[in-house]
Here is the input.
Amino acid sequence: MLEQWMYIGIFMVVAMMLPSIAIIIAGLLSPRRPNPIKNSTYECGIETVGPGWPQFRVQYYIFGLVFLIFDVETVFLFPWAVAYNRLGLFAAVEAALFIAILAGGLIYAWKKGALRWL
Amino acid sequence: MTSLQIVFLIIAAVTLASAVMVVTARRLMHAALWLILTLLGVAAVFATLQANFFAVVQVLVYIGAIAILIIFAIMMTREVMSVTGPRLNRGWGWAAAAAAGGLAGLVAVLSTWQGFQTVLEPLPSGSVGVGALGEAFLDPNRFAVPFEVASVLLVAAMVGAIYIAVDRKVVEEQ
Amino acid sequence: MDFLKDPVTFLANQLVLWLTGLGLPEGVVRFLSFSIGAAILATSSLLFVIFLIWFERKLIGRVQDRLGPNRLGPFGLFQPFADMLKIFTKEYVTPSGVDPVPYNLAPVLAVSSVMAIWAVIPFANTIYGVDLDVGVVFVLAVGGLAQLGIILAGWGSNNKYALLGGFRALAQLLSYEIPMVITLLIPVMLAGTLSLTGMVTAQDVPFVAVAPLAALIFFIANLAEVSRAPFDLPEADSEIVAGFNIEYSGLKFGFFYVAEFLHGFTSALLFATVFLGGWRGPLAEEIPILGFIYFAIKTSLVYLTILLVDATVPRFRIDQLLNFSWKLLTPLALALLVAMALVDRAMVGMGVESIWIRLPVFLALNAGLFAAGAYFLDRARRRAPRPVVSGGPRPVARPENFTMQPK
Amino acid sequence: MIPLSWYLMLAAALFAIGLFGVLARRNAVAVLLGIELMLNAVNINLLAFWHRSQQLSAEPHVTGLVFAAIVFAVAAAETAVALALIISVYRRRDTVVVDELDLLRG
Here is the structure.
């Protein structure tokens, strides 16, 4: 069991190292002639206006929120889906109820206009 | 000291160090990024506990959704992006004392428990199925009620959060 | 003969034998063999991208009635190598005021999060990185790391366009992950396991034949996850300044593109594994290399479809894109999941166990829901407000139409 | 092979750090980050005890897993509502510093 994670751990380390090494090698190979204009923040050729952090609309938050709720739902639905073949109709009804409640939330968000990109 | 123990100690050190950075980082965005590292460490701890499903779900839900939502919220409140004023409140010394006292108390209580030194052996493969969890969740005599209540809780949170967050004026104007 | 049937296992066994022969303890041998296997798998995924870039450029060129790369080597095969040399020697222009760690970590994370999926994909009966018992959720989870890479790039660049582009990309990824997760529940349900290897073994009938609508929704959501047309808003070259990777240059920029190409192909791998039966085919279990070939063919077909869609379909607007996910795909996927579970369990409860009797019912369900989805899509299209196109003369880009005339 | 005590100590330390964050930080979002740390500490404990009870008996034990799943749901719900409140408060009061939110003061 732990061997699986050992492999995943090694693989993640390798997968992080390969691009890092390539980037470092390219950094050694490439020229390096910085100047203030080249290093200024890109803004369509004109000078930067205002700070680099604009404020964001609440719409992003709403989409993140609905996503979060549906993502957590999978924590409950994946175990059900794995055990599905061993369970009967009643369990399927329970899961359907679970999903129906969530769908109710989705419909609320929809009717409220929260899912509209303003 | 086995290699697994060394790995665990490294994971624990990274987790705790980044957790300290979460509560002390000056910029809120950095605190959130350190939180992500802490969450990854906790996911690795779950993996050493052979709670495979929860190790990946930790990454999926906490990093993939909760951390991203927090970062969205940080972006919504621009004032917090700039470093203004002290990051800790005046009573932070008391808070540190309370946290240290809490830790000491927890360790003192736990170490008197006879099962404290139990060594966790690797579980035989196949004994820790997600399927068993699913069966327990849908068994009316066991956890079917928490299962449905979780759904209600999630929807209640979603409805409440949308109700609070959506600016009615903006929506009506459109 | 063993070597021809299953070269990978053969070589792996040889390696383990050789390492054990050196007198190393068992744990070290395992660590070394795992490391070598992981390094080979990861490197081959990166090298494969070189071929993918050539293939895509060639194919898109043909679709657009061009030749594509044709100067360097046969059929321009060496073009990607020339590009690689060029990008390796490009200067890194790092804007002042970046947040160094997030800025430099982002391209690495973008690539490695896609490569991580390769660790759990079964390429053949015996050829796979690791048989993780929660492989499906693992694949979804590393998608979360890819989103993290986009956030880091957007925030680390200290550029409002990068940040804005990153958030737009993020909104898209988040929106399409939901239908993807829900449609992945259907194969999990049918196979009864979260392991990708187990899922392939369970597909006596490929799941695309059992739940074609789920496969379709999964395919569409995958297109959006890899930002291919019609969902290529995050790097719509012609519209916004280039999204979250605007402040990157040289190989750091290159790695975002590598990640994009690799992600496109990896999604094809995933689709072939989950819905097309992976390496399954005649004689695949006896001769693993044959299974590998079946898998390669299936994957290529899926990838070709992705590329052809990419080459031919116009781009969505952001509100259309979000509506399409939240108001069509997500409800449809939820309805499909519930309907299939209820009907299937009811049938099994009545004593109908055979997959051949349940299959037509499943297909009818899928077809019915597809029709319902198409109906609602059409209704939404009819109701959508349309801009009034005036009958007057349109401005044409002729010299006399410009107020400022050249002297 | 790892003693249960290590997990419990790790969880206790994480909990204490989170508690410090909740009590000491001025920014409401930072307070929320502290709560996330505490919830994670709880989950480490739950899963460590689940592992212990699983190795002590042959029967599949799932109670710890069920609790951990519920903690995930609670964490998600709490984050969603708390952040919505913070955003809403920020829009009205233009601040997210906890000390300055004293509207209920008599």
